[in-house]
UniProtKB/TrEMBL annotation:
Record-linked Pfam families: CAT_RBD, PRD
InterPro entries assigned: BglG_antiterminators, CAT_RNA-bd_dom, CAT_RNA-bd_dom_sf, PRD, PRD_sf
A Gene Ontology BP annotation from the UniProt entry: regulation of DNA-templated transcription
Name of the protein in its database record: PRD domain-containing protein
Keyword Repeat: yes
Span of domain PRD: 64-169, 172-282
Naturally occurring in which organism (per UniProt): Clostridium sartagoforme
Keywords: Repeat
Entry GO MF terms: RNA binding
Length: 282
């Protein structure tokens, strides 16, 4: 294994074909130079990121951030993949490493950032938020600092973002998506004067649908299929109260976000609202 680039004493870049691998180990590059051989038994961690841009940015982070933060972030990412059973976008290696390092540094400096949507994150991301809490335990074990639960919410959002093919710059969009989910679910709740059963599979499906609806809103990807015109008319007449609620949502979204909700989106919103309201009131 020959050194192609030295990032710091503990991290180097090696070539594997036309791809770069980031290799880490204690003192791996100490008194070494580009072109030198490094024994593989000194390697603790290897990162092979397929996206060239993400790999370059990750190399920058590795150069600036202590190795223990990168190793901890990787353990949290492995935990998230295992718990969720889902593939996460490579960008999470950037966003999570940077966030954990910044959060710990900020906490030690006495600066605390409040998460205005913490309550909503707990409600809407019931799989990701517990991973955020477990991450706080892991951070405490590693660095002997207990970050506030607000940080568990932020970590959960990074995990949510990585499931939606978001990159490290789009966490603000995920924050906005959470806000839209809150707004729409409140319209439904107050329209039907109900309290959702948040443990229901129908509520989970409803929130999942809102998540992707809001994602389209901010990426301006309209979901439209004229083949469902007949079905839309049937659903509209069959579930009148749910459709009327969808019209309220559509009006709100148009006025606040300047986004026109398509008939296709109205169709699926009506179906999800009907299911979640029927199961809640039943």
């Amino acid at each position: 294994m020959r050194i192609d680039k030295i990032l710091n004493n503990n991290a180097i870049v090696v070539k594997e074909g036309n791809k770069e691998k980031i290799v880490m180990g204690c003192g791996l590059a100490f008194k070494k130079k580009v072109g030198d051989e490094v024994p593989e038994d000194k390697v603790d961690k290897t990162f092979l990121l397929s996206n060239k841009d993400i790999s370059n940015k990750f190399q920058e982070l590795v150069s600036d951030i202590p190795m223990e933060y990168i190793e901890l972030a990787e353990r949290i990412i492995v935990l998230a993949k295992t718990q969720l059973g889902k593939k996460l976008n490579e960008s999470i290696y950037l966003s999570l490493v940077d966030h954990i390092y910044t959060a710990v540094k900020r906490y030690l400096e006495g600066v605390e950032v409040k998460n205005a949507l913490l309550w909503e994150i707990k409600r809407f991301y019931k799989e990701e938020y517990p991973i955020g809490l477990k991450a706080l335990d892991m951070i405490e074990e590693e660095f002997k600092v207990r970050l506030p639960d607000d940080e568990a919410g932020f970590i959960a959002l990074h995990i949510v973002n990585s499931q939606m093919d978001g990159n490290d710059k789009e966490i603000k969009r995920t924050y906005k998506i959470t806000k839209v989910i809150q707004e729409i679910s409140n319209i439904v709740k107050y329209n039907f004067k109900i309290t959702f059963n948040e443990d229901s599979v129908y509520y989970y499906r409803f929130i999942s649908h809102l998540k992707f609806f809001a994602d389209r809103l901010f990426t301006e990807k309209t979901f439209n299929d004229e083949n469902n015109d007949d079905l839309f008319e049937i659903i509209k007449n069959k579930y009148k109260s749910s459709y009327e609620c969808v019209e309220k949502i559509s009006k709100f979204i148009n006025e606040k976000y300047d986004y026109t909700v398509s008939d296709e989106e109205k169709l699926y919103l009506t179906i999800h609202i009907e299911r979640v309201v029927y199961k809640t009131t039943k």
